[in-house]
Design brief:
This protein is mostly helical and 250 residues long. The chain contains eleven helices and four strands; from the N terminus they run H-H-H-E-E-H-H-H-H-H-H-H-E-E-H.
C-alpha cells in the first residue's frame, strides 16, 4: 500500500520523492508487479503529480520500475529463474562487500547492527512485516556501506531495486528460517573478530537460508497455486488455492 509516504519539504521535490520511492523499493514497501499510479503516490506524499512522474521515470530507467503499454508503471516482478540468477550475483557482490567491511567494522557500527537485528526480530514476532523488511534492508546496507567501496554499494542498490520488492512475499507465507543460529548473529561475530572469510561465508549463508522458502513460494506462483492479486481498491495481497479460485470466479 501507499501509507507512510510523505514529503516534509518542497525543496528539490523530485529528488526527495525519488529517494523515498527508491528506498521503498529496496526495503520491500511495494509488492512485485504492483501498479503505481502517479496521482495516488502524489496524494500520499502531499506533492503534485510532476515530481512523482519524474521520479518514477528515473526509476524506470534504473530498472526498479517498468512501463507497460506506454502508460502503466509497475514494480518489477522477478520470475523464479531470474530471482535465482540475481541471487548468484548477490552471492559474489554482497560477499565481497561484507568481506571488505570486516577489517573496517567499528564497535559503534556493530552496536548499530545489533540494534537493527533486534528490531527485525521484534518486528517478526509482532507481525509488523513492513518494519521487518525495512530493518533487514538497513542491516545489510550498513554492512555493505562499511566496505567504503561506493561503486560496489551503488551496484548493490541497483540490484536491490529489483530484489527488494520480493521481500514483500516473505511474510507471513515464506518467513526466513535458519537451521541453527540466525546468520545475522554470525555476520556480527565475524565482523567483531575482523575475519573477512568468515564474514563473507555468513552473509552468503544468510542469503541462502533466508530465501529458501521464497524459492518454494515462487514455484507456487508460477504453477498457479498462488498469485499476487490487487483488488478494485488497490489492496494487494497474496492468495492461495480456493481463495484464489474464488477471486478469479468473481
Amino acid at each position: 500500500m501507499l501509507k507512510g509516504l510523505k514529503i516534509s519539504s518542497r525543496d528539490n521535490l523530485t529528488s526527495r520523492v525519488y529517494d523515498q520511492l527508491r528506498i521503498g523499493l529496496m526495503s520491500g514497501s511495494f509488492w512485485p508487479g504492483q501498479r503505481l499510479r502517479v496521482r495516488e503516490v502524489a496524494m500520499a506524499m502531499g506533492v503534485s503529480d510532476t515530481p512523482v512522474r519524474e521520479a518514477m521515470m528515473q526509476l524506470v530507467r534504473e530498472g526498479g520500475l517498468e512501463m507497460r503499454s506506454g502508460q502503466t508503471i509497475n514494480v518489477v516482478k522477478l520470475s523464479r529463474a531470474r530471482y535465482l540468477e540475481l541471487r548468484e550475483i548477490r552471492f559474489q557482490l554482497e560477499g565481497m562487500a561484507t568481506e571488505k567491511a570486516a577489517p573496517l567494522a567499528t564497535p559503534e557500527m556493530i552496536a548499530e547492527l545489533e540494534l537493527r537485528h533486534a528490531e527485525l526480530i521484534e518486528a517478526e514476532q509482532t507481525g509488523d512485516y513492513e518494519a521487518a523488511t525495512l530493518t533487514n534492508y538497513q542491516f545489510h546496507f550498513l554492512v555493505y556501506r562499511t566496505s567504503g567501496i561506493q561503486d560496489l554499494v551503488s551496484i548493490l542498490e541497483s540490484i536491490w531495486l529489483r530484489h527488494g520488492p520480493m521481500l514483500r512475499l516473505l511474510y507471513p507465507h515464506a518467513p526466513p528460517t535458519y537451521p541453527a543460529r540466525h546468520q545475522h548473529l554470525n555476520v556480527m561475530d565475524a565482523l567483531r573478530s575482523k575475519d573477512p572469510s568468515l564474514a563473507r561465508h555468513a552473509i552468503v549463508a544468510d542469503i541462502i537460508e533466508g530465501g529458501k522458502a521464497m524459492i518454494d513460494l515462487l514455484e507456487q506462483i508460477e504453477d498457479g497455486r498462488a498469485a499476487i492479486v490487487e483488488d478494485e481498491h488497490g489492496v494487494v495481497q497474496l492468495q492461495f488455492g480456493a481463495e484464489l479460485r474464488k477471486t478469479s470466479a468473481a
